[in-house]
Amino acid sequence: MWESLGLDLDAHDRLLSVIPPLYQDVYLNQKNRPKGMEYFDFAVMEIHGLRVQELQEHKANGGKVVGTFCLYVPEELVLAAGGICIGLCAGADVGTAEAESVLPKNICPLIKSFMGFKMAKICPYFESCDLIVGETTCDGKKKAFEVLGDFANVHVMEVPQTKSEAARALWRSEVEKFKEKIEKLTGNAVTESDLMAAVKKVNARRRALKRLAKLRSADPSPISGKDALLVEQISFYDDPVRFAEKVNELCDELEERVGAGIGVGGGPRIAVSGCPMAIPNWKMHHVLESSGAVVVAEEACIGERSFRDAVDPNGSDMNALLDAIADRYLKIDCACFTPNAERPEHLRELVKERKADGVVHYSLQFCDPYTVECYSIEKSLKREGIPLLKIETDYGQQDVGQLQTRVEAFLERLGDRVGV
Ligand code: BJ8
Asked: Is residue 48 a contact partner of residue 14, using CB atoms and an 8 Å limit?
């Protein structure tokens, strides 16, 4: 299968050999994990196995696979046209030399990672894609998609930078254009009933993730932040129906744990806010939880932002459904928007709901939108007296010791406040 995808087999083997020991250290060594995590452990171990095989079978039957890197891409349209939508991961230092041959060194690691995965031919998901959908969010991404166009079939959606009426009209037309693009790619017309069914399918996955997130309000939280993050990461590549079923089974078990007062840790409760943490980026959560904290929320795209809002499935015709899709996606409070007053507000609400003792603001190096927006986040949290730790990091392990020292000092400060 790998050869037919044109992967660099040696580089791919090297990547796969790193995952089991890392996973053992970060995940399997945790004590008292919910039994329902077994499915998600399996999904990681099979990350380059069964799911890739499913994609190949889909393609052999004439189906198309569409890869994305951003929450703004409406996956409902891909599903409605009979395609599979995969959120491609960009959470590891991979193919760095190859990426740096076409991109500057000092660019956000997420961008470098997706370019590295493609140029070094290491990712079977990337190589399975018939179309990559990019978007005009941050400057680095939108220019990198121009470069990526030389190596893959790329369609770019124009995401506006404000939420004015004119911006909404532009975005609505982009959604329509995307529908046409997907229809052409798959050869299938998107019907109202197919779109409605796809909306319901994706909404069900969002509901399951929301249920899981809300269970983390319990004290003690019935699940570690690392495990919850993993589930959120897998949501981007697993089959949406099977995934929602497994998350709901996990939630049934977590409800029992909450009822019995079973949970993890006893240290300060932390909400992490900022840049997405794509699989296998578990660095920040691992540092926090191995220092005694419990992460109770991810105010991020791999996290709350992906499931906070649903698409209204009750549109009476195609226009109404496309309106509902455009409106739902435009609610996303990514730092690429200006102004972006909703994000600090959402974060404050989340801190309250999850009974978080503090916030860690997580920015990837060279990410201007999130690093600069940290100013408004800090100002808004300060007003409520919510402590904040600002972290700027990359995918490397070189700064782990330094992060640990800063995190421990922060947790100590919180411990004094909450009497842990
Ligand atoms: S909706 S957060 S997934 S754009 S970290 S590449 S912003 S320099 S990933 Fe994002 Fe969509 Fe927004 Fe979410 Fe640029 Fe920053 Fe890198 Fe980023």
From this structure: no
